[in-house]
Amino acid sequence: MKVFFKTFGCRTNIYDTELLKSYVKDFELTNDENLASIVVINSCTVTNGADSGLQNYVNSLQKKGIKVLITGCGAFSKGQNLLKRGEIFGVFGASKKEKINEFLKAKTSFLELGNLEFIDKNIVTTYKNHSKAFVKIQEGCNFSCSYCIIPAVRGKSRSVDEKTLLDQIKILTQNGFNEIILTGTNIGSYGQKMGTNLGLLLQKIGKINGVKRVRLGSLEPSQLNEDFFEILNEPWIERHLHIALQHTSNQMLKIMRRKNRFESDLKLFEFLASKNYALGTDFIVAHPGESDEIWKEGLDNFKKLPLTHLHAFIFSPRNNTYSAILKERINGKIAKQRLNLLKEIVAKNNFEFRKKQKGLNVLVESLKNDYYEGFDEFYNKMKIKSKNDISKTWVNIENYIVQSEFNLAKESYEK
């Protein structure tokens, strides 16, 4: 029987899916959903949209009569109800990955959520469908942001042993992966109970032969320290950092129970921008309590930030969170207007930022519509025309045209 894995959500889920695949022994893996008898969904539940996406996908599989298993964050928030309604066959938590072969063989429905204290014993050493490698360095989060359900479905922060990580990256580079993406629920908390931190880990990763670029998942501003700042000039660190602010009004940050404050956030971003870093952030629009006054304060502050990338979305109430019980909701039309305004500001910033850069180093990922595509060191997309197959290779682009959403190589590239 053939098994198809469907992954929703973050890079941590991409890693977890690869680890799950490594435990499958008695079934054939397929990349074609239409050939599968069983589908394993590695789910996300960070927003209502994620839950809707999961439900819609399950509905589409039901019509085909396919056996469905669910894991990931949605296993805790939605799995039990889906199972009770008979819409899926089984549910298992992330701590139960090693039992995937047994779950695939199961003759009766099951619910095994496991625990939220686990750390995976095995590692991922190759990626068949990716040009870069994901490495999960920790699980869970100790923050208690008012809007967030993730600590409830991922648990408290715990870190992977440093030697295990360094050995894993050595193997990945030997297997041809030169770009390493560090991922986790809250990677800035790495090593808190181990007498180390993210900066010290990065300093050791940078010394591994074969590592050409290290990209980082989302960071919290309050967790960046001198050990981290020491690696900023290293040639192997990606010149793009995603630092989650969530809002730029101090009043709203207090309502959200965030640790960061705008004044220190601005100093941090200005410091990083002075080193020619592209900077991204998360921003939640229309959180309860975002009055016209708070929005204006936040917008004025937002414009001061040297942002080049943005992951912004409208507030989505999650069950069993403090924000979900707050009653001051923002009109949906106003929320969309605010969201689009933020996107427009950052799109203009990104365009101006790209015009200033010279000589971009691109890891080519795939061929789409006659153009090879990849991302440069600033996490901006480059499209390249080439007669040769340059997939999964590094190219240096000197001549390119800055277009609205991506850069286009000016001349055809010959390997």
User: What distance separates the N and C termini?
Assistant: 41 Å
Largest sheet: 6 strands, parallel
Low-confidence stretches: none
Helix/strand class: alpha/beta
Globally, the shape reads globular
Compute the number of helices.
12
Question: What is the helix fraction of residues, given as a range?
Answer: 25-40%
How much strand? Answer: 15-25%
The number of E-state strands comes to: 19
* Cα gyration radius (Å): 22 Å
As laid out across the biggest beta sheet, the strand order is 2-1-3-4-5-6
Task: Give the integer mean of the pLDDT values.
Answer: 95
Structure explained in plain terms:
With 415 residues, the protein is of the alpha/beta class. Helix content is 32%, strand content 22%. The chain has helices spanning 11-22, 48-64, 73-84, 100-105, 150-154, 162-174, 198-205, 226-229, 250-255, 262-274, 292-304, 332-356, and strands at 2-7, 28-29, 38-43, 67-72, 90-92, 110-112, 133-139, 158-159, 179-184, 213-216, 240-242, 278-285, 309-314, 360-368, 371-375, 381-384, 394-397, 400-402, 407-409. The chain has a six-stranded parallel sheet, sandwiched between helices. The chain has a six-stranded mixed sheet with strand order 17-14-15-16-19-18, covered by helices on one side. The two termini are 41 Å apart.
Write the layout of secondary structure elements.
Blueprint: E1 2-7, H1 11-22, E2 28-29, E3 38-43, H2 48-64, E4 67-72, H3 73-84, E5 90-92, H4 100-105, E6 110-112, E7 133-139, H5 150-154, E8 158-159, H6 162-174, E9 179-184, H7 198-205, E10 213-216, H8 226-229, E11 240-242, H9 250-255, H10 262-274, E12 278-285, H11 292-304, E13 309-314, H12 332-356, E14 360-368, E15 371-375, E16 381-384, E17 394-397, E18 400-402, E19 407-409
Parallel strand pairs: 1-2, 1-3, 3-4, 4-5, 5-6, 7-9, 9-10, 11-12, 12-13, 16-19
Antiparallel strand pairs: 7-8, 14-15, 14-17, 15-16, 18-19
